Amino acid sequence: MIDTDACDLDELRGAIRQFLSESPRPEGLRNYGPTPTPADVQPGRQWHRYLAAHGYAGLHWPTTYGGSDAPVPVQAIFAEECARADVPRQLAMTAIDLVGPVLINYGTDAQKRRYLEPIRLGNDIWTQLFSEPGAGSDLAAVRTKAERTSHGWRVTGQKVWSSGAKSAQYGILLARTSPDGHRGLSMFIVPMDAVGITVRPITQIDGESKFNEVFLDEVALQPDALIGGVGQGWTIAMLTLSRERLTLGCQAVAMFKRHQRIVEAARGRGRLDPVLARTMTKIWARMWLLRFTWQRAVAGEDTASPAFSVLKIMTSETDRDLCDLATDALGTDACTEPGSEDCAELVHAMLVGRAQTILGGTSEIQRNILSERLLRMPKEPRWGHQIPPSHPGGPE
Ligand SMILES: Cc1cc2nc3c(=O)[nH]c(=O)nc-3n(C[C@H](O)[C@H](O)[C@H](O)COP(=O)(O)OP(=O)(O)OC[C@H]3O[C@@H](n4cnc5c(N)ncnc54)[C@H](O)[C@@H]3O)c2cc1C
Questions:
Q1: CATH number of 249-374: 3.40.50.2300, 1.10.10.60, 1.20.140.10, 2.60.120.620?
Q2: 281-316: per-residue pLDDT in tens?
Q3: Position in ligand 1 atom list of the atom nearest CA 135
Q4: DSSP at 351
Q5: Residue 244 bears catalytic tag
Q6: Fewer beta carbons under 10 A from the terminal one: N or C of the chain?
Q7: What is the CATH number of domain 126-239?
Q8: Active site residue: 244, 301, 364, 372, which one?
């Protein structure tokens, strides 16, 4: 059981490292990241249950709900040590990291009783049903409609990029309950086996299918599917997004491992020339900057701090650039030998590295947040959802 009151964080790190190194790994377990593929679900669930039994599931949840109420630095150490041990730190991120805090803050007592424990124990997988074909960065443009009926709600619309939807028991859905911009959005719980839901997996460039399109055709929801009040969807969505950014900043440890593998791959192929060596050194320095910035931010314990937007940009752009270097290290082997032992992981990293600057809010949007909220620069023009007037200097 984790000692969250431990004041010596190095000792705590040592204890977590030892625990993870001695833990039996379920067959087939791999470090699949925040979302399991359907094939990862069984070993991931077994691993999650083991973590839960030893007090490592829901570290950030209050003790009332079975969590450990762990301070942010302790959560960060656990995330880093999982990366070092090459294991996932939960079955799926959406449920425990995003939905848990939402229900704890906005759920009714009945919702908390029904949904929190199965999440903590790794029984239920949740998917985040926010993005739509016309609403990603501009989430307030969500068009999926939830209408009141005499029995509850009727939902119709389409979602996209819904990670893990194929394996999920529930979705957390952002839907429009009135035309009134972001004040017209509400949040709902959707059972993924409800009549009228179709989940269509999207095959990614790496051959995996973590993403899905989700079609909702007159899906009937009970009145108690609503989270918080009508019109509170935007506020709740912001809580999940800030939590998502918080969890994304702790990837430096995994990057150091990847950096080492890239250097070894280049050296083994006689490709570690002075140009590549210099580039690898520069990126190594960026990784240390990232690690120190992350440590400073988590020591501050202010999870709403804009520092996490800085970290999100630093993490995703450093990781993308690092993954890109796999091609320099592997050379033509990246195309001719993609399945060979030392190539496979790096080729995979190279292919999925592009997603980093998009997921959890794009780099451009993070820069907008920083310029407006931290630097107090003028706000970017917002045209609501009308067509903007043509730019005076732009093409006709
Ligand atoms: C790996 C991964 C997992 C994901 N999982 C989920 C999930 O589980 N659930 C879910 O709902 N969504 C998920 N998403 C979707 C993700 O949240 C969106 O892709 C993201 O918010 C960007 O939206 P978009 O794809 O619609 O791009 P758009 O918003 O159309 O943006 C296109 C480009 O325009 C730029 N842009 C847009 N607006 C501005 C602006 N105001 N100023 C400057 N530039 C701008 C963007 O930065 C981007 O480069 C996932 C995405 C990825 C990559």
A1: 1.20.140.10
A2: 999 999 999 888 888 887 776 766 777 778 889 999
A3: 26
A4: H
A5: yes
A6: C
A7: 2.40.110.10
A8: 244
Q: Compute the mean pLDDT over every residue in the chain, rounded to the nearest whole number.
A: 90
CB atoms within 10 A of CB 221: 22
* Residue limits of CATH 2.40.110.10 in the chain: 126-239
d(Cα 119, Cα 188) in Å, to the nearest integer?
17
Closest C-alpha to 121, from 78, 84, 92? 92
42-73 pLDDT, tens digit per residue, is 999 999 999 999 999 999 999 999 999 998 88
| Ranges for all domains in the chain classified under CATH 1.20.140.10 | 249-374
Q: From CA 16, how far away is CA 82, in angstroms rounded?
A: 9
- What's the confidence (pLDDT) of residue 190? 98
The confidence band for 387, taking pLDDT boundaries of 50, 70 and 90, is: very low
b/e string for 127-140 if b means 16 or more Cβ within 10 A?
Answer: bbbbbbeebbeebb
Token pair in block for residue 319: 């990781």
Q: Ligand 1 centroid vs 201 CA: distance in angstroms? A: 18
pLDDT value at position 1? 65
68 and 86 in contact (C-beta within 8 Å)?
A: no
